[in-house]
């Protein structure tokens, strides 16, 4: 089973990487960019028997820092 | 207009970050993980007038390294 985990910073958490990308886009002449947020995409190939609870545990223990990050799981 | 850009390593390109995550998951006792690939998710808030060609240029010039990475754009 293929999984995609999207890890994004919670609203209000400062995002220096996103700010740097925003600045770089403007320096390159791209106008009309209002906001940039940088996150992570983790693609997992797991055994079909893996339960939702196990996937949730992986996210909470390792893949996302739930203090500052949200995560979303998508089955592909 | 909100955009999500998914940047993933091309197949065959070595992914040390994914390997490290895979190893860490196994160390934590999660069995049944066969493969892990790490990628990036960049969320952009751009002017509605931004064209597909401009978005493509942003990806090619800055957001993705097209030598080793693929990217996919999703309008949200």
UniProtKB/TrEMBL annotation, chains A, B:
Q: Which InterPro entries match?
A: PurS, PurS-like_sf
As its record notes, the protein acts as a catalyst of: N(2)-formyl-N(1)-(5-phospho-beta-D-ribosyl)glycinamide + L-glutamine + ATP + H2O = 2-formamido-N(1)-(5-O-phospho-beta-D-ribosyl)acetamidine + L-glutamate + ADP + phosphate + H(+)
**E.C. code:** 6.3.5.3
Q: Name one GO cellular component term.
A: cytoplasm
Q: Which UniProt keywords apply?
A: ATP-binding, Cytoplasm, Ligase, Nucleotide-binding, Purine biosynthesis
Q: Which Pfam families match?
A: PurS
Broad enzyme group: ligase
Q: What's one GO BP annotation on this UniProt entry? A: 'de novo' IMP biosynthetic process
Q: Name one GO molecular function term.
A: ATP binding
The main location class comes to cytoplasm
The UniProt record lists the keyword Manganese? no
Q: In which pathway does it act?
A: Purine metabolism; IMP biosynthesis via de novo pathway; 5-amino-1-(5-phospho-D-ribosyl)imidazole from N(2)-formyl-N(1)-(5-phospho-D-ribosyl)glycinamide: step 1/2
Oligomeric and partner information: Part of the FGAM synthase complex composed of 1 PurL, 1 PurQ and 2 PurS subunits.
Which protein family is it in? Belongs to the PurS family.
Q: Which PANTHER family match?
A: PHOSPHORIBOSYLFORMYLGLYCINAMIDINE SYNTHASE SUBUNIT PURS
Give the protein's biological function: Part of the phosphoribosylformylglycinamidine synthase complex involved in the purines biosynthetic pathway. Catalyzes the ATP-dependent conversion of formylglycinamide ribonucleotide (FGAR) and glutamine to yield formylglycinamidine ribonucleotide (FGAM) and glutamate. The FGAM synthase complex is composed of three subunits. PurQ produces an ammonia molecule by converting glutamine to glutamate. PurL transfers the ammonia molecule to FGAR to form FGAM in an ATP-dependent manner.
Q: What is this protein called?
A: Phosphoribosylformylglycinamidine synthase subunit PurS
Supply the source organism for this entry.
Sphingomonas parapaucimobilis NBRC 15100
Phylogenetic placement of the source organism? Bacteria, Pseudomonadati, Pseudomonadota, Alphaproteobacteria, Sphingomonadales
């Amino acid at each position: 089973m293929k999984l995609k985990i999207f890890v994004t910073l919670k609203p209000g958490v400062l995002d220096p990487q996103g700010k740097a990308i925003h600045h770089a886009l403007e320096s390159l002449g791209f106008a009309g960019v209002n906001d940039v947020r940088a996150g992570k995409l983790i693609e997992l190939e797991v055994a079909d028997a893996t339960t939702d609870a196990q996937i949730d545990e992986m996210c909470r223990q390792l893949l996302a820092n739930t203090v500052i990050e949200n995560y979303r799981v998508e089955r592909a």
